Amino acid sequence: MTMYKKYKQIGIPRAISYYNNYPFYYGFFTSLGLEVVLSDKTTTKTINEGTKYVVSDTCLPIKVYTGHVVNLINKGCDAIFVPSIQSTGYKINNCSKIRGLPEIIRNVIDKPFTMIEPTLDKTENISFKDFCFQTANALGITDSDEIEKAISDGWKVYNAFFEMTKSGVSYTEALENAIQGKFVRKTVGIVKPLSVAIMAHGYNLFDDRISLNLIKKLEKMDVRVYTSLNVTREDSLAAIDQIGEIQYWANELELTGTAAYYLLNKKVDGIIALSAFGCGPDSLMVDEISYHCKEVGMPLIHLTIDEHTGEAGFVTRIEAFVDMLMRKKRSVLAKPSAQKQKTVKVSNVGKFEETKVLASSVK
Amino acid sequence: MNTAEKLEKSKMENTIPTKDRIIAWPRMGRIDIPLKALLLSLGAKIVIPPANSNEALEIGVRNSIEGICLPYKLNLANYIMALEKGANTLMMFQAPGSCRLGNYTKMAQKTLKSMGYKFDMVIFDMYKSKMKQTLQAFWHVTHCINPWRYYKGFSLGFNKFFAIDTAERLLFYTRPRELHRGDAERCYEKWLKITDETNSVIGAKRLKKQIINDFKKIPIDKNKKVPIIYLIGEFFVLLDPYTNQNIEKELGEMGVEVQRQIMFGDWLEHVLKPSLFYHKESHRERSVRYAEKYMKRAIGGECIETIGDTVYAARHGVDGIIHISPFSCMPEIVAQNILPKVSKEEDIPVMSLVLDEQTGKAGYITRIEAFVDLVKRKQQKRNNN
C-alpha cells in the first residue's frame, strides 16, 4: 500500500543531537520511507555562516548548528529536523540552548523552510515514543503501526552502532557500518603505552572541526583514547552514584559519567576535558570532576574551545599533557622496588596518611 | 529511586541542635527585610551578611570557578561573610530543572566544606506551590510548633514584601516627575526603614496604604511627557541594585519611568499560593500567552518571561525595553537571540546589556544614555504626528 507522503526527504543538521542519535534517526526516517539529507561536514565556513545569525554570546556548538541549518536550506531541503530535547528523565534537564534550539532557529533565520520540531520532555511526561510520534505526525504520517515499526528499526541501527563503539570501533567507522547494516568487531590492536579518557559532549568531540581532530592527534602520539561511547549507560550511572554525585544535566553521562567510570576503574593515566567556551553545564561538571581527580591524584586538563581557537596552541597543550603523563608513568615504572620499600617503611612508623598518598600516586 | 532519596536527604542537613542554630541566607535586593521578620517571629537567631558590594564580589570570585554565572559568585560571598559573622545554618531555595540555579546549593555546599567551615545547609524547592516544603524547611530550622507564630511570621513577611513592592513601583513613577530632585528617593528610604521596624501584623497590613498616601504628597509635574521603559531579564540581576549598578535610579534621573514586571512579592505569591486560591492570571501565564508567536515552549530560567514581556510592552504603548542578564546566562542568551526579531516585528526598541564582574560603569551609562535619547526622539516623533 503506498501512502501519500507530504515530504520526500528530511534534512538533519550535522550538529548537536546528530552525534548522539543519528543512527536512530537514520533507521527511523528510512523506515518511514524518507530520504535522509545530511548537511556538509563542519568547516570554518559553516562556523562563519552560523555566527552571522546568532548573537556573539552564544556558544560555539549552537553557532555551528545554525550554520548547518543554513547549509541544509541552501541545499533545498523540504523539511529540517530540529528537535527540542528538554529532559531525559524526571527533572534531568538539558542546557537551555539545546532545549530552545527550535526557538533560536525559528527566530534567527529569516528564510522560508519547514521545521519539524518535536519535544522530548520526561519531566512533563512526554516520552521518547511520543517524541517519535510527534515527528512522524508533523511529516504527515499517522499510521501508528508504521511508526512503531520505524521506532524499532531505529533502535536496531542504534544498538548495532553502540555495540560496535563499545567494543572499541571508532565513531566514524561504527556509524558507516551501522548505516549499511553491517557489523564489525574491533581487531586486536597494538598495546599503547598511555591511555586517556576524554570527557566531552559528542557534538564537540566527534566533530573534527570543533575538536580540531583531538582523537586522531592523541592516537598519533601513541595514546589510547576512551570516550563516552565505550561506557554503557548503566555503568556511567553507577559511577556517578559511586563518586557521590547526583545526575543533574541530561548530558551528564557523557561527561561526569564517563570521567567517573574511568576514574574508578583506573584504566587510564589521565583525563582530558574538552568544552566549548561559555558552556554552562560543562563549567559545573568539569569542576566536579576536577575536585574528585584532585582527591585521588588523577591528572586532568581542561581544554576550552571557541571559534578563535588556534590549532598551534591547542596542540602544544595536548603535547605537554601527554609528555607529563609519560614522565609520570616512566618514573613509577622505573623504580617500583624503591616505591615499595618506602611504603613499607612509612607504614612501619605508622603514618597511615602518607602511605595512602603514596599508594594513590602509584596507581 | 536511590538518587531521589539521596537528593532528599542532602537537602536538609541536621547536625546542629536547634537551640544553637544561627540562620543566614544569601542577599538579593531587599529580601532581607521580610525574611528577617519571618525568622525572628519564629524565634530564630539570625545573621544578616553585609549587602552585596565590590568586596563581596571579590570574595566570591576568588572562591568560585571561572565559568559560573555572577549570581552564584555573590551568593557564595554572602555565605562566607555570614559564616565569618557566626552563622551556622544556611538557607536557600532552589529550582531544579530551570538552569544552573538548581546546582548552586550543591556547589556552594562542597566549596564551603572544602574551605573548612562547619554548617548545615537547608534547601527547599519553591516552584509549583511547594508551600508544604517551604513550611517544612522553616520548621526544620526553628522547631517552632506554635501556629500563631507561623501565621504572624508569614503574614508579616508577605505584607512587607507587598509594601516594598508598592514603594518601589511608586518610586519608579515619581522619580522622573518629581519637582525637587531626591524627594522620592528619600521617601522610599524612609519607608524601607519603617517597614523594617514594623513588628505587628496590623501595622504591616496598614503599610501599603500609608506608603501610597505618603508618595502622593510629593510634588510632581503631572503633565510632563515621560517615556516608559520596561526593565526585563534575569531575576537576580533585575532585583539586586548592586549587580545592575542601580540602573533604575540612573534611568529615573534621566527622566524615564521604569517599569519592572518581575516583582519579588508578586512572584512569591504566584509560587507559594496554592493554585486553588490563586485566581488572577500570573505573570508567567501572561508571558506564555504573549510569547506564543515566537516561542512554543518554556526552556528554563526567565526566557519566556523576557519574550512575553517584550511583546506585551509593545502592544501596550511602552516606548522601549532594556534587557539585562549576567554573562553566560543560558536562558537569557536564547532570549537575546530571539529579541531582535521581536523588536523588528513588534516595532519596539530593545537593548541587551550583559553584566559581569568586569562591567565598567562609564561605558554602561553611555549605552543607557544613548538608548534613552533614541527612545525620547521616537516618542517626540510620535507626538508630533
Describe the model.
The complex is a heterodimer of chains A (363) and B (385). Chain A is α/β, with parallel strands linked by helices. Helices cover 54% and strands 13% of the residues of chain A. Chain A is built from 16 helices and eleven strands. In chain A, strand 4 (84-89) and strand 5 (92-93) form a beta hairpin. In chain A, helix 12 (252-265) runs parallel beside helix 13. Chain A is globular. Chain B has 385 residues and is α/β, with parallel strands linked by helices. Chain B has three domains: 13-143, Rossmann fold (3-Layer(aba) Sandwich); 158-174 and 178-222, no CATH class; 224-385, Rossmann fold. In chain B, helix 7 packs parallel to helix 9 (201-216) and helix 14 packs parallel to helix 15 (330-346). The chains are: A alpha/beta (363), B alpha/beta (385).
Question: Can you lay out the helices and strands and say which pair or pack?
Answer:
The complex is a heterodimer of chains A (363) and B (385).
Chain A: E1 9-12, H1 18-31, E2 35-38, H2 44-53, H3 60-75, E3 79-81, E4 84-89, E5 92-93, H4 96-99, H5 101-108, E6 114-116, E7 119-121, H6 128-138, H7 144-166, H8 171-179, E8 194-199, H9 202-205, H10 214-220, E9 223-226, H11 233-242, H12 252-265, E10 270-276, H13 280-296, E11 300-305, H14 311-334, H15 336-349, H16 352-362
Helix pairs in contact in A: 1-7, 2-3, 6-7, 7-8, 11-12, 12-13, 15-16
Chain B: H1 2-11, E1 22-24, H2 32-41, E2 45-46, H3 54-63, H4 70-84, E3 89-94, H5 101-114, E4 120-125, H6 131-142, H7 147-174, H8 183-197, H9 201-216, E5 228-233, H10 235-239, H11 247-253, E6 257-260, H12 264-272, H13 283-291, H14 303-315, E7 320-326, H15 330-346, E8 350-355, H16 361-384
Parallel strand pairs in B: 1-2, 1-3, 3-4, 5-6, 5-7, 7-8
Helix pairs in contact in B: 2-7, 3-4, 4-5, 7-8, 7-9, 7-12, 8-9, 13-14, 14-15
